[in-house]
Amino acid sequence: MHLEDCLNRLDRYRSEHRHFEFYWFPHTDRVQVKFMDETNQEASSGGLGSRFSKWFLENGAFWLLSETARRFPRLCPSISRLSAWGVPTVEEVGDSHRLFATPRRVRFNEMEYALPAEKLAEVVREIRETIRRRRFAVHFPIECRYVKGDDIWLSPAYGRDTAFVAVHMYRGMPHEAYFSAVEAIFRRHGGRPHWGKMHSLTAEELSRLYPRWDDFCRIRDEQDPEGRFLNTHLRALFGIPSEQAAESATAR
Known about the structure:
The protein is of the alpha+beta class. It folds into 2 domains: about 5-195, FAD-linked oxidases, C-terminal domain (Vanillyl-alcohol Oxidase, Chain A, domain 3, 3-Layer(aba) Sandwich), CATH 3.40.462; about 205-250, no CATH class. Helix content is about 45%, strand content about 15%. The protein has 11 helices and 6 strands. The protein has helices spanning about 5-10, 10-15, 45-70, 75-85, 95-100, 120-135, 175-190, 205, 215-225, 230-240, 245-250, and strands spanning about 20-25, 30-35, 110-115, 140-145, 160-170, 190-195. The protein has a 6-stranded antiparallel β-sheet. The N and C termini lie far apart (about 65 Å).
């Protein structure tokens, strides 16, 4: 469907479906929309269209298009339009663990942020304008989905209903400038980074995003005073000095 039609119906889609997500193809006005709901219907294979989409379009054909984009970045807008044109309409019934897990053979770098749910439309429009203005060579769809708020201290959805927005860049293509520009948008709107994906935030910056950050760090210190469950990445994430620096400080 058209991007603006989707953005104007976000509240309706959120309320009418158990799961709702969409993928916007940069340089186009098209999105692929997915609705997932519980049903009493018998399981189906989804037919030839589903298998064709999952294995050929989303993997084989998209890998070929991605390699073309890597070699000829100026073709990214055309490749994105071609990808949007090739999205089929499919209805499939099956177990959730089968339908939620989709094969991904095309490798990429990814950054994903959790935003207040009501900010989604505004953020997507800002990303669209940034890609247009700065002419970023990107052809990977931008993924948007909703998650209910929770009470887990370091959950990106802590204390608020949340919209996740993920941006991707094909492996081998420069992603730094694109990710930095989009991350600035996320941060302006109170975004929290997905812990398992790329971001640039420091411990001090993260501590301002999580009301219970200090409580978590206090309990972490109490439960693991020797840092047995830490690695280099986690030490930086929580602002804990490296073992070598700690030993040096103790010696002085």
